[in-house]
Structures are given as C-alpha cells and as structure tokens.
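[User] At your convenience, examine this fold.
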Amino acid sequence: MTRRDLTRRALGLLLPALLSLITLPAMALDGDASAPIEIVADRLELDDQAGTAVYSGDVDMRQGSMQLTGQRVTISRTDQGEVSRVRATGERAYIEQQPSPEAPLVKGWGRTIVYHTLERRVELIDQAELHRGRDRFSGARVDYYLDRRLVEADSGVDNDGETRQRVRMTLTPQQ
C-alpha cells in the first residue's frame, strides 16, 4: 500500500469521528455546529482500533468560535464513533468558546484540559484558570459545565495533605 493510500485511509477513518464533533456544541454560536473542524499539528498518530487520534507539536484545533491549543491533543471516540473526550496537554493548554451572541467569551488555561463532549464539561487541571467575561476563577482544578454555565473550583491537595493552590475568584459587577 502506498503512502498516499495510507493517508487516504487514515483520513477516511478519522473524518467520521471529527465530523461527529460538529453536533456537540449546542450552546455555542449557531454557525459553530456547521463549521468545519480544522486541526494543525506537527504530527498525527491515528489508531482506529483504539478509537484515538493523537496530534502533537503545537496543536491548534478550531471549529467555529471554539479554539483548543496544546502541545498534545488526543481525541477519543466511543465504539459508535462519537467523540467522547478531547484532551489537551502542554505548559499552558488553552480553550476558548463564545457560548452565545449575548454571552461573554469563555477562556480557559491549564496544563491539562479535558473536554468531556457527551457531558459538555470542560476540566482545567493544574494551574487552572477560567475567564468568563470579566469574571476570573483559578485553582488547582476548575470544571466548567457548558450547558448550565456552572463553575466548580478546587484547591487540590498533595500527597502530604498540603493545599497546592488556593481557589481564587474575582467577580466583576455588571455596569
């Protein structure tokens, strides 16, 4: 099998998984659901049997108003081919999305970001920070539930029972 045939086969296997991402962000801008998914990286490793696609090297993933960046991004899918989880890692992995035209832009950072697509929940882990408009949340871990617009933050505890990073929150009154 030629390299070109392998590339076509890999794209044929990966495309259905990536296209299933299109239906996930129900709370995002109307155009997001029909926008193409674009991923740029230095390397791709596709394992169809495991249901994973691993991108590495300055990864930039975009769909409509959503952007996800990191040094490594792993997309996992269920046996039915639905994307179940997108995990980004790096010194400062980043995610942003415009939930709706009237809502403020949501931005998040962490050394690890896990987007549980079926739950519509984003986990920001290790030096986590979430900006929702002018409101700021930080801690060792911050979870954001997209549909409910719920934020949960945790300070985290190390092996000795010591707090790693205190939870901080800044709420800005509406004008």
